[in-house]
């Protein structure tokens, strides 16, 4: 018993001396990035993106939920759906979201003529500008597909994704949420669709769960900037970690 007390007293003295040392090391800081490497942000950031809108009844409910949670997102719009939903575009802009171009009627651009590509993108760009004014409205080609030689014809960055739960096919909020939570890492671009009620439910559940894990939701443009990426026109971005392709 006496030996045990002596050991306990010795340990207490050791702790006291350690705490009183003036040369004790400070907190461990992350190493500086090597020359030529972008500095990775310490916080966890992710970009939530939505295709195929705007759609009254789902997009507005999604915007309500994002505003309540202080989360930003990026919306890639179908041009033919803008008429009659101009108020939703203005809400996107006014509430800090990024607006992008997803062609006029969701045609697969891969393999079509240059004239058809220009018509699909140009017509949608004009429709967005008629509501929101001048700006750079980044493009997400439907299905994420383009021929290699088509890329050079675009005057904006091209946005792909790194997390795709196929919400359009599952139509199940719980399954979509679980898939996204299992796959997401900082720097990811998540693909969802604001055209379906289960997708809206999943999106808000995803925001709630990832915010509890310390994630912040930003636009795609903000995400790339946070990772030190200077966006290039005609190049695809799948996430913020790996650079353009």
Q: Average the pLDDT over all residues and give the rounded result.
A: 87
The CATH class turns out to be: Alpha Beta
Sketch the topology as an H/E string, one letter per element. Answer: HEHEHEHEHHEHEHE
Name the shape in a single word. globular
Kindly give the count of domains: 1
Main sheet specs: 5 strands, parallel
Distance between the termini: 69 Å
CATH homologous superfamily (4th level) name: Glycoside hydrolase/deacetylase
CATH architecture: Alpha-Beta Barrel
Low-confidence stretches: 1-37
Count of strand segments: 7
- Based on secondary structure, the structural category is alpha/beta
- CATH third-tier fold name: TIM Barrel
Question: What is the structure about, briefly put?
Answer:
This protein is of the alpha/beta class and 245 residues long. The chain has helices at 2-20, 59-69, 86-94, 114-132, 167-170, 173-183, 197-212, 220-226; strands at residues 44-53, 74-77, 98-101, 158-159, 189-193, 215-218, 236-237.
Describe it.
This protein is α/β, with parallel strands linked by helices and 245 residues long. The chain has a single domain (44-237), classed as TIM Barrel (Alpha-Beta Barrel). 39% of the residues lie in helices and 13% in strands. The strands form 2 sheets. Strands 1, 2, 3, 5 and 6 form a 5-stranded parallel beta sheet that branches. Strands 4-7 form a two-stranded parallel sheet. α3 links the parallel β2 and β3 (98-101). It is globular. The protein starts with a helix and ends in an 8-residue tail after the last strand.
Draw up the topology in text:
Blueprint: H1 2-20, E1 44-53, H2 59-69, E2 74-77, H3 86-94, E3 98-101, H4 114-132, E4 158-159, H5 167-170, H6 173-183, E5 189-193, H7 197-212, E6 215-218, H8 220-226, E7 236-237
Parallel strand pairs: 1-2, 1-5, 1-6, 2-3, 4-7
Helix pairs in contact: 2-7, 6-7
């Amino acid at each position: 018993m006496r030996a045990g007390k002596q050991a306990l007293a010795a340990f207490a003295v050791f702790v006291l001396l350690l705490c009183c040392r003036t040369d004790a090391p400070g907190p461990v800081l992350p190493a500086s990035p090597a020359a030529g490497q972008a500095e990775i942000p310490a916080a966890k950031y992710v970009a939530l993106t939505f295709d195929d809108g705007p759609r009254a009844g789902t997009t507005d409910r999604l915007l309500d939920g994002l505003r309540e949670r202080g989360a930003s997102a990026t919306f890639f719009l179908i041009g033919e759906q803008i008429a009659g939903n101009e108020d939703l575009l203005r809400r996107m802009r006014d509430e800090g979201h990024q607006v992008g171009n997803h062609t006029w009627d969701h045609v697969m651009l891969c393999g079509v003529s240059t004239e058809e590509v220009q018509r699909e993108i140009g017509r949608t760009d004009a429709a967005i500008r008629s509501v929101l004014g001048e700006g750079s409205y980044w493009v997400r080609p439907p299905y994420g597909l383009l021929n290699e030689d088509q890329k050079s014809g675009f005057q904006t960055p091209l946005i792909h994704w790194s997390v795709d739960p196929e919400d359009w096919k599952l139509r199940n909020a719980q399954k979509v949420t679980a898939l996204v939570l299992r796959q997401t890492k900082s720097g990811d671009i998540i693909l969802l669709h604001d055209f379906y009620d289960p997708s809206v439910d999943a999106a808000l559940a995803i925001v709630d769960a990832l915010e509890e894990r310390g994630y912040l939701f930003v636009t795609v443009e903000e995400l790339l900037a946070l990772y030190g990426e200077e966006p290039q026109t005609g190049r695809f971005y799948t996430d913020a970690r790996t650079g353009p392709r």
